Amino acid sequence: MLKRIGVQQLIVGMYLKEFCGSWLEHPFWRSSFVITDAKDIDTIRASSVREVWIDCAKGLDLPPGEAGVSLAEVEACVEVEQVATARAVRDTARVSSAAEFARAARIVAKSRQAVTSMFEEARMGKAVNTGGAQRLVEEISDSVSRSAGALISLARLKTADDYTYMHSVAVCALMVALARQLGLNDEEVRSAGIAGLLHDLGKAAIPLEILNKPGKLTDAEFAIVKEHPEKGHAMLLPSSDVDPVALDVVLHHHEKDDGSGYPRRLAGAAISIFAKMAAVCDVYDAITSNRPYKAGWDPAESLRKMAEWSKGHFDPAVFQAFVKSIGIYPIGSLVLLNCGRLGVVIEQNTKSLLSPQVKVFFSTGRKARILPEVFDLARPGCRQKIISREDPAKWNFPDLNEIWSGLAPATR
């Protein structure tokens, strides 16, 4: 029987079914688990969560004499219907990237915590609770619906230390955007997101000294890293609620269209559409991110490089859809306009991939900063156009990420 209780009534041995309130507010990455440690109760009470649902059939009930609100009582008051209706209304109305950045930053921060916990549990040999990832994927998916570029761009700004965890979040968001671009249905989009989130789970079984090595891996070390698809697949197999798409993607996201990938050397039609999607998303985030041994490439330059590799590496149709989903000049790309000013892409224009919105901030003629100004290159009458992509390392603007996101480093 489900019962809603106050957090002060929680005791060790209860089965916590769900937190009341926003997923962003509660302190754990998953919502359903048996409370086995009193410290977890302290953590819940220290959060903004005031009530939770417990399942008395799976764990302890309230002590005799303490009152909670049973599901039957809630249904009698029709309150549960109102709660269900409120939860069903998800905020997915489209907004600009600028309007979504702050909210996306909160989701990214929460996602970092969630995925870190998931990997740590897997590293300790605990069963992987894939059901607990559903709310995380839902939040990421809703953010991508509101503004495809905001969360994807912020998730790219990871440090070398948290690369493994934030890479999973970024690939999840990229998979959701790509799935929608390919016209997949809602269930398939959700499966793509879960698969992206879990695709590198097997890296939890790779020694940290190899995973975080600042220099080039030896052949022996790289051979160990290449075991992560099979290790991740083995971790997920015992889970009763694992999505079959996730199992497939975890095992096959390093396969290549020409059959030169691993671990099975599959080729062409033998590779599922989801694994082909993951191959593109995985590589894009990897090469645009800072790693222990190299700085990430500019987003636009990364797409150019991937286009060079696309023959044999990626499925051509999937790669073309991927470019459409993030833009030829993704958010954060540094570009030079025909007026001689440098700007950074802050928004895509769905009707013209070559004409995004650009915030200019530097005059190459004067070699000086100028008052930032936004140009919508797709607006009728706009005479500005992009003549080249620029290498950020050449110009070395220390605040480039703040210019396009509008967020201070501490908030990202």
TrEMBL record:
Transmembrane segments: none annotated. The keyword Hydrolase applies. PROSITE patterns: HD_GYP. Pfam families: DUF3391, HD_5. Keywords: Hydrolase. It is an enzyme of class 3 (hydrolase). The keyword Transferase does not apply. Coiled coil: none annotated. It comes from the Bacteria. Residues 142-338 form the HD-GYP domain. Its EC number is 3.1.4.52. InterPro entries: DUF3391, HD/PDEase_dom, HD_GYP_dom, HDIG_dom. CDD domains: HDc. GO terms for molecular function: cyclic-guanylate-specific phosphodiesterase activity. This is Cyclic di-GMP phosphodiesterase response regulator RpfG. It comes from Accumulibacter regalis. The lineage of its organism: Bacteria, Pseudomonadati, Pseudomonadota, Betaproteobacteria, Candidatus Accumulibacter.
